[in-house]
Amino acid sequence: MATSLDGKIIGKFMETENAMGVLTDYVWTNNFFKPDAFMCGTKTVTEMNTEQPVLNPDEKDVPEGDFIAKGAKAPFLVVPDSAGKVGWKNNYFETPYIQKSDVIEILSEKASPQYRNYLRRLNISYIIAGKDHVDVVPAAKALKQKFGINTLGVLGGATINWSFVQAGIVDELSICLVAAGDGANKSLTLFEKAPQIVENSPVEFELKSIDRLSRNGLWLKYTPKAARNEERPYSGQFDLGKKNVDYAKFFTGTSYLNQLSNQGATVLNVTFEPGSRNDWHIHHGGNQILLVTDGFGWYQEEGKEPRFLRSGDVVEIPPEVKQLEWRI
């Protein structure tokens, strides 16, 4: 999520120069987690999509259960739409912040058969989760079981955010903080309680990392205290290799080393676990080329500002330069 300093997720602060810079970073920070799908609430989607559903009042019969559209494939955009109100032009959706994605609607049992038939005509997948409102826990299970969605990026709105946090199924909270205040009294904040949530308890988070973004912004990552501690699978371009035991004294945290070639130039694939770093060191052999193939991190030379790195970046490192690399 992207928020103002006073926690707003929408408002005039979005028009500031600082917000424009951070919103550019917002795209790649979302993709950092390599989600199989993004989720946006009904209000968020209707603000970007003005289509109205075209219903046939005579379509009173509809097959029971969920509907998986023919040819449905990742990436997906998941939309909780309890009563069935969102209109669509196609069975996919895209914005400057979301790549072209097949739509999956999450409905409650109160969504009409006319609306369900409308989605079927457009070949839009839907699942039923909840009686009068969307229940996020069975919804998340169905998304995993029926669509193979293991990592879901929840992009708001405020009530959807809080529903997931209250249900205890959030593994990590990512906030792109815009260096701007809004001050509006009625603008939505990062979390808002849905009316159907009766028991509402505070949720504590633990700070995982802080990184600089464009235009004075910050990228804050938190984990809920009750979050599951599960490792993400390795997804790099090359084989992970073995634990970097021989050079462990030059590293903080765990890294892995795979020698790809030693014919002429030596080519090494070095993989850093999150939060690990290659401590200050000097390479005496000759020029080095650092090519980032996956993930995000930082590179710094002594006496200079650190440089943010993402997949595809290249750094040419002269010999005898004291340097430091670390992964977010």
Automatic annotation (TrEMBL):
A biological process from GO: riboflavin biosynthetic process
InterPro entries, per the entry: DHFR-like_dom_sf (IPR024072), HNL-like_cupin (IPR047263), RibDG_C (IPR002734), RmlC-like_jellyroll (IPR014710), RmlC_Cupin_sf (IPR011051)
Highest taxon of source: Eukaryota
GO molecular function, one term: 5-amino-6-(5-phosphoribosylamino)uracil reductase activity
Domain (Bacterial bifunctional deaminase-reductase C-terminal) ranges: 1-214
Protein name (Swiss-Prot/TrEMBL): RibD C-terminal domain containing protein
